[in-house]
Amino acid sequence: MILYLGSSSLIKLYVREVDTDIIRGWVKAAEIVATCRIAYTEVVSALDVRLKKGDLSNSEHDLIVKQFAEDWQNIAKIDFDDREAGNLVREYGLTRFGALHLSAAKLILKEYRKHRVELETTHKRRFDVDLFFFSADERLSRAAAAEGLKVPGLEVIAKNIGR
């Protein structure tokens, strides 16, 4: 299984929030954890905001940033298609970074499908790998589902924001 984590979900691995345990469980089960290459900057920036707001102490912040930097080496970093991201902004009203994440996840799926055909032709058997997309952003999650990605927990997201 490939698990795509948006920045909001990556942060949950380091700062206890709603769904932290769920995300950690999915990460343990995943063969590959992937995200867009912009996520490193997004996560570090979000952690700095929490430090400035007083949600994290200096020592907590430094420890989390250090751990994230170490873990980053084991995360598949995916590029994005800038034109498609622009189209996703227009179609779904996504934020610029949300659109970049969705574009990156779609690139994984596109590449996998291309290589799966080659593998199945060569090895004469099916190769199925699931790609799951996690984001705490409901609009982004709904857009990902509309684009054909597997998005677990949409009902949980809606419940947590009172819909």
Automatic annotation (TrEMBL):
Matches recorded under SUPFAM superfamilies: PIN domain-like
UniProt name for this protein: Type II toxin-antitoxin system VapC family toxin
Species the sequence originates in: Syntrophorhabdus aromaticivorans
